[in-house]
Design goal:
By secondary structure, the protein is α/β, with parallel strands linked by helices. It folds into two domains: 1-56; 59-168, Rossmann fold. It is built from six helices and five strands; from the N terminus they run αβααββαβαβα. The protein has helices at 2-58, 67-71, 77-82, 115-125, 144-148, 164-168, and strands spanning 61-65, 85-89, 109-111, 129-132, 154-157. It has a five-stranded parallel β-sheet with strand order 3-2-1-4-5. Strand 4 (129-132), helix 5 and strand 5 (154-157) form a beta-alpha-beta unit. The longest helix has 57 residues, at 2-58. The radius of gyration is 32 Å and the shape is rod-shaped. It is found in: Peroxisome membrane. It is a single-pass membrane protein.
Length: 169
């Protein structure tokens, strides 16, 4: 009889062990299946995000706000800031039109204390287009378009005698 009981225990132990192995394989297979789908989805989401960033950068711009732009009351700053645009305020100037600007755009206006601060912002933001009035930057910055052509695809020098609103849009 002793051998018969051992055979029953051996059969039961074999059943338990095989069930555990099958459950383990099932869980491992499910985890592999879930993760394989996530990698594919993550790759698709990353591709879509990169395409969106590229599209946004194609239409992004920086405006160096100088005295003439500040005094021009015909410029609709809300419509300009509605697009992907950043305004860098030159040292010594204060952009007082903040009360008229939509609160959700105020973070796009950066007051710089020095010209070095402006160039640092320009280089770090790396947007697509730069707008500025050449005469108002000073003689030290006559050939900045040469220095910045590696950063911007388009550099637009604004003409003080023409309608600023038309030139900025």
């Amino acid at each position: 009889m002793a051998t018969r009981g051992n055979n029953r225990n051996n059969g039961f132990n074999l059943f338990i062990k095989s069930t555990c192995v099958l459950v383990g394989l099932g869980i491992a297979g499910y985890m592999w299946y879930r993760n394989a789908g996530n990698e594919e989805r993550d790759a698709d989401e990353e591709l879509a995000t990169n395409e969106k960033k590229t599209m946004m950068q194609k239409h992004s711009s920086i405006i160096i706000l100088s005295t003439s732009l500040l005094k021009d009351t015909s410029i609709d700053w809300n419509s300009i800031l509605e697009n992907d645009c950043v305004i860098l305020v030159m040292p010594g100037l204060k952009f007082d039109n903040l009360a008229n600007i939509n609160k959700s755009y105020k973070y796009k206006i950066i007051h710089c204390d020095t010209m070095t601060g402006i160039w640092s912002c320009i280089k770090h933001l790396r947007l697509n287009t730069l707008y500025y009035i050449k005469e108002e930057l000073g003689p030290d910055y006559d050939d900045i378009s040469v220095d910045l052509r590696n950063i911007f695809t388009t550099i637009r020098i604004l003409d003080v005698d023409k309608d600023m609103n038309m030139q900025l849009t």
